[in-house]
């Protein structure tokens, strides 16, 4: 990589580059990784005033929305192991944003619920995420945004085929 790449500060825009010469790279995987890095950087900035990191907002919003209620469910939905999720939940519990409660139906199950502070924080997350997405989709028409989402869903479907990815979705 060129020295130019190492001299960028976090608040500077990162141009499309491919090699040390600065030549544009059109490799789809590389571009997806660049966009994901950019999204995560801005999510971190948006979550900082809420006292969260990019990895901590997901469990909060998933519990708040009812998509998950246990550490195991959160780990699966966030594609992390249960140990990593337990450590994240420990941090969120220490911040007073959630608590763990033993299930009345099955004493082996530990339910996760948000505290009042956690619910208040969760309510602020969608606006923060909206700002990140709005910045990244700036200049896209409604049709382009819809087409982009369609492409992403198709890529996900193609990547999840049981035949190792050789079947494509038309």
Molecular structure report:
By secondary structure, the protein is mainly alpha-helical. It has two domains: 1-50, no CATH class; 53-129, Arc Repressor Mutant, subunit A. Helix content is 56%, strand content 6%. The chain contains seven helices and two strands; from the N terminus they run αααααββαα. It has helices spanning 3-6, 28-47, 54-65, 71-78, 82-94, 116-136, 142-159; strands spanning 98-102, 110-114. The chain has a two-stranded antiparallel sheet with strand order 1-2. Strand 1 (98-102) and strand 2 form a beta hairpin. Helix 2 (28-47) crosses helix 6 (116-136), helix 3 packs across helix 6 (116-136) and helix 4 (71-78) crosses helix 5. The longest helix has 21 residues, at 116-136. It is globular.
How many domains? The number is 2
Q: Which H/E pattern describes the elements?
A: HHHHHEEHH
Percent of residues in helices: 55-70%
- What's the total helix number? 7
Task: Quote the average pLDDT.
Answer: 85
Would you tell me the structural class of the helices and strands? mainly alpha
Strand content: 5-15%
Which fold name corresponds to the CATH topology of the largest domain? Arc Repressor Mutant, subunit A
| Widest sheet: strand ordering | 1-2
CATH architect. name of the largest domain: Orthogonal Bundle
Report how far apart the termini are: 37 Å
Ranges where pLDDT stays below 50 over 5 or more residues in a row are: 1-12
Q: Count of DSSP E strands?
A: 2
Radius of gyration in whole Å, from Cα? 19 Å
Largest sheet composition: 2 strands, antiparallel
CATH class of the largest domain: Mainly Alpha
């Amino acid at each position: 990589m060129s020295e130019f790449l190492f001299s960028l500060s976090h608040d500077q825009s990162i141009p499309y580059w491919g090699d040390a010469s600065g030549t544009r790279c059109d490799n789809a995987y590389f571009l997806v990784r660049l966009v994901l890095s950019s999204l995560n950087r801005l999510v971190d900035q948006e979550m900082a005033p809420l006292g969260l990191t990019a990895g901590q907002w997901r469990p909060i919003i998933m519990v708040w929305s009812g998509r998950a209620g246990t550490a195991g469910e959160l780990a699966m939905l966030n594609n992390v192991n249960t140990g990593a999720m337990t450590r994240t939940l420990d941090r969120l519990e220490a911040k007073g944003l959630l608590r763990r409660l033993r299930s009345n139906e099955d004493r082996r199950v530990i339910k996760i619920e948000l505290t009042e502070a956690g619910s208040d924080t969760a309510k602020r997350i969608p606006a923060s995420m909206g700002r990140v997405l709005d910045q990244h989709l700036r200049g896209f028409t409604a049709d382009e945004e819809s087409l982009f989402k369609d492409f992403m869903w198709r890529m996900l479907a193609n990547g999840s085929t049981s035949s190792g990815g050789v079947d494509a979705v038309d």
